[in-house]
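Summary of Year 1 activities. Much of the first year was spent building the evaluation harness for sequence design. The harness presents a backbone, in tokenized form, and records the residue chosen at every position. We chose the following record to illustrate the format because it has been used consistently in internal testing since the harness was completed.
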């Protein structure tokens, strides 16, 4: 897998440090609130697991699966709910944990849906933010790293369901997706 990576953007150590930093911020903000922390499958699974364990406060965890990509490197725009949470978020403080905010469409879909269900507050913690990709108004409140407008993989992020298990975040060699 390493051979398919053009350059490493964030090492395992840098990712760990970011998780500790964000975990402490969430801990301070949600002390005594018992938030519902919702991880967005599958990209945010490792980040979710590291973030919640870096946060020493009571919290409920849940997962949601939405899809917009259909395997390529460009977001298709129309987001659909694949697997829902089982928690009733009405009147609850919610933290969405995402892998990356690119166009912002997935996030907007989730924010609208959870607001519609009566969440008391909703904040977003995203490992990566790609501001150059934004087409709709949606932003993360807690951000690990800002990334350039390149297709990144690793630590949960995939290309065609591969590379999620890389322990670091890197830029995929363009020939990997242009040859396919
Ligand atoms: P959106 O465009 O809706 O903000 O991003 C939705 C999803 O597209 C993200 O949660 C992520 O799964 C995927 N995505 C966006 N940019 C990248 C990227 O650079 N690499 C990978 N692997 N996935 C991305
Ligand atoms: Mg995602
Ligand atoms: Mg994907």
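For this record, the design step produced the sequence shown next.
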């Amino acid at each position: 897998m390493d051979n398919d990576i053009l350059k490493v953007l964030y090492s395992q150590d840098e990712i760990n440090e970011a998780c500790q930093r964000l975990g402490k911020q969430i801990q301070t903000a949600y002390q005594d609130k018992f938030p519902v922390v919702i991880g967005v499958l599958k990209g945010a699974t490792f980040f979710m697991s590291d973030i919640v364990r870096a946060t020493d406060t009571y919290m409920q965890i849940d997962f949601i699966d939405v899809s917009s990509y259909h395997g390529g490197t460009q977001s298709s725009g129309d987001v659909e709910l694949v697997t829902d949470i089982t928690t009733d978020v009405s009147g609850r403080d919610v933290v969405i944990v995402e892998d990356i905010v690119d166009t912002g469409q997935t996030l907007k879909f989730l924010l609208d849906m959870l607001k519609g269900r009566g969440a008391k507050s909703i904040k977003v913690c995203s490992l990566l933010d790609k501001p150059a990709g934004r087409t709709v108004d949606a932003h993360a409140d807690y951000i690990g790293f800002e990334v350039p407008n390149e297709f990144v993989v690793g630590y949960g992020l995939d290309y065609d369901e591969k590379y999620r298990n890389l322990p670091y975040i890197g830029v995929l060699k363009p020939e990997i997706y242009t040859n396919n």
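The longest strand covers residues 93-101. Quantitative recovery figures across the full test set are reported in Table 2.
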